[in-house]
Design brief:
Blueprint lengths: L13 H15 L5 H7 L5 H28 L3 H15 L7 H11 L4 H6 L5 H16 L2 H7 L6 H15 L14 H19 L3 H29 L17
Helix pairs in contact: 1-11, 3-4, 3-5, 3-7, 3-11, 7-11, 8-11
The chain binds pyrroloquinoline quinone.
Enzyme class: oxidoreductase
Protein name: Pyrroloquinoline-quinone synthase
Function: Ring cyclization and eight-electron oxidation of 3a-(2-amino-2-carboxyethyl)-4,5-dioxo-4,5,6,7,8,9-hexahydroquinoline-7,9-dicarboxylic-acid to PQQ.
Amino acid sequence: MSDFHDAAKNGLNQLQFEAVLRQVGAERYHNLHPFHHQMTQGALTKGQMQAWALNRYCYQSVIPRKDAMILARAEDPAFRAEWRKRIEDHDGADGWNGGIARWLKLATGLGLPAQDVIGERLALPATRFAVGAYLSFCTNRTLLEAVGSSLTELFSPVIIAERVPAMLAKYDYVTEDILAYFKPRPEQASRDSDFALAYVLAHADNPERQQSVIDALVFKCDILWAMLDALKHAYGEAGHIPPGAFRPEERG
Ligand SMILES: O=C(O)c1cc(C(=O)O)c2c(n1)C(=O)C(=O)c1cc(C(=O)O)[nH]c1-2
């Protein structure tokens, strides 16, 4: 395991810098989390699967808002033209025919009432704190750090390729239709992360800026990890469901 806190102290060339960023993903991305392993092994109960979808909706719904923050702070029109595609992917043309709507379809396809998902009140406190931290990070840190924090998308095609076939094979109530969210994601994520990676390689031109990007990516991995930790704590063997949070047995 590497400690990434001083990885750029002597300055890195672009190849070395990219290698460190990829190493962060190899060591810290949420495909290493036990909750993800349980999912791909077919070991989640339907209630746990519902809890995952309900909580993950909060993440999906904050993504276009954090991208709007990034957009507002970018001075280069060409950057904005590229970055706004992310908002269009999630919101669609009318707000409800993009990624957020497809995530809602996933959650309702698992048996959750749409209003419980959209309302976000049944999500875990830790989920709401984690997605709030992501939004405020992208609002308050430098544009370079905000772009750096999106680089987990470099690794999302890997976790999607692990998750989707396993969900289809191991859970009889999961269908291709329910998982429509994931279909365009690997291609969109590759387009987005290629752009974001090229941006940080070009703009992190001294050791301090390189380190700020590495730290931003570690922070983002921590956000995703914390969300799965919270699910495991609440809905795993410990069963510590916080007051007011989704309770699977009440939903059948
Ligand atoms: O399925 C996943 O595990 C996963 C991970 C991530 C990620 O790594 O942040 C994103 C997504 N999915 C995703 O669907 C998505 O739209 C997305 C946007 C972003 C971002 O930070 O801008 N990450 C992710």
